[in-house]
Prior knowledge:
By secondary structure, this protein is α/β, with parallel strands linked by helices. Helix content is 38%, strand content 18%. It folds into 2 domains: 49-155 and 342-368, Nucleotidyltransferase, domain 5 (2-Layer Sandwich); 203-336, Nucleotidyltransferase, domain 5 (2-Layer Sandwich), CATH 3.30.420. Helix 4 packs across helix 12 and helix 5 (203-219) packs across helix 9.
Amino acid sequence: MTDMTGADSTGADMTGSDPTGADMTGSDPTGSDMTGSHSPGSDMTRDAFVLGVDSGGSGLRVALGPRDAGRPAFTTVCAEPVRTGADGIDAGHLLEQLLPAVHRLLAQAGTGATVAAVAIGAAGMATLGDQLRARLPGALADALGVRRSALAADAVTAYAGALGQRPGAVVAGGTGMIALGTDLTTWRRADGWGHLLGDSGGGAWIGRAGLDAAMRAHDGRRGGSPVLLERAEAVFGPATGLPGLLYPRTDRPALLASFAPEVGACAAGDEVAAGILRDAAAHIAEAAAAVCPGPADSRPDGCEVALTGGLFRMGEPLLGPLRGELAQQVPQAWVVPAEGDPLHGALRIARALAGGRLRLPPHPTLLFVPGVT
């Protein structure tokens, strides 16, 4: 059963963001693996490195990359997720994990290596990141001597990883679903409001709809699917036990999303499952339509749209109807492969900062750049 637990604020798993499922961490767009490509003692000049960080539900991913290269040179992972409390994301806990990891990477990079710029993308940054915005720029300057920093929502680093600094739209789908678009002057956001208020078409939404169809079949109500009932009981046990399994859990969205691949697997032979995915595709396309820049703000041949996240590894059962919905709802959309994942995006933002070439629009919560309004 595919793991669809997520890393962004909505639970979207954006690791390996190419919809084909290819893991793009540490490789350039041509497929060349550049992880660890510079040995200690290499001829990198002082201040030649930038730092990218991706903080999500599965922990911290950290990359120290050459300032002028296309992909990370050194990467490491801290498996413990950063804590979130009453004051939002815990800046102290993030620093406790991040700083030792950075010092290890700097040691790998060689004598005299320093950091010119840093970009941190974090799940929940937009709504829970006040403490990070207040503390991290100063703490990173004190600890690493870095004066150029950016703190981004993980949807923004996903955007930068997928499309770089071009106008367009990115849909990130995993446990949740969010769409983000820009014309390089402002950001447009659609959904990403969590499984109780939205995330329509995301993994938890699909899984819940599949379980609803299973329970309808159990009761003998209209709209039920005996096939999905059989799969639900194979995965979770007797249908009557589902409320006791689901309701006490604090990770309900992830548990619901874990059933989405079962819906996808049943879609070819079950009209109810296929209908759920058609509805999901309609919701996803609706979000993309809401954030796509207009014709005057994007490419002459249309708005680039990239799909990122584990949801789209479901493949044709979802991608087939989604192509049709995008063609109908967003006729100007031009679907392109994601060039990289959120860690790649964080490095891209850091490199742009280091070179004074940041084109993505700063925003108080989505892309916070100290000193820039």
